[in-house]
Write a structure and sequence with these properties.
The protein is of the alpha+beta class. It contains 6 helices and 4 strands. The protein is elongated, with a radius of gyration of 27 Å.
Length: 163
């Protein structure tokens, strides 16, 4: 809410107080003033809701996330070993790209069972900051030159509707 909105609301409240204090209140004017106050408050609430939605933890994570496809599935036998293998692969990729980034989460999306022909699942990479995500996106051309990662591509993660 800016200062002009605050002053406008304050003036309307003062007008209401004066009208109510008077012996012969003009009820039509009072109702119109109250209606205007409600409209102003609704506008302010919409601005607050938009701000909160834009700055939610989920939105912030989206800006720090990338989805990688085409990375081969780990061949380890246990889930924990497969997770560790994915972590090693991502660490190797970051080292080869010479990108200083700290992954906060690395995990596979979807399941292999949903396809007739098994293919590598998408891998979601959540970084510590959105700046790290941007640096990694800028390194996209270098990524394609890496021998071990030629068949993999990545793109920013924009939420559940994307997959």
């Amino acid at each position: 809410m800016d200062s002009a909105q605050a002053e406008s609301i304050s003036a309307l409240v003062n007008t209401l107080e004066k009208a109510i204090a008077g012996e012969e209140a003009d009820w039509k004017t009072l109702c119109l003033t109250i209606t205007q106050l409600v409209k102003d408050q609704m506008t302010i609430m919409q601005e607050i809701m938009a701000f909160l939605k834009e700055n939610s933890a989920e939105a912030k994570e989206r800006y720090r996330s990338l989805v990688i496809f085409g990375l081969p599935e780990p061949i380890a036998s246990t889930p924990s070993e497969r997770i560790e293998e994915d972590k090693r692969t991502i660490t190797q990729l970051l080292d080869e790209l010479d990108v200083e980034a700290v992954p906060t989460a690395i995990y596979r999306l979807l399941s292999n069972k949903s396809f007739d022909k098994p293919r590598p699942r998408l891998l979601k990479l959540v970084l510590s900051t959105s700046a790290q995500s941007e640096i990694l996106c800028e390194a996209q051309r270098s990524w394609l030159d890496l021998l071990n990662f030629r068949r993999s591509l990545y793109f920013p993660f924009f939420g559940a509707r994307m997959v």
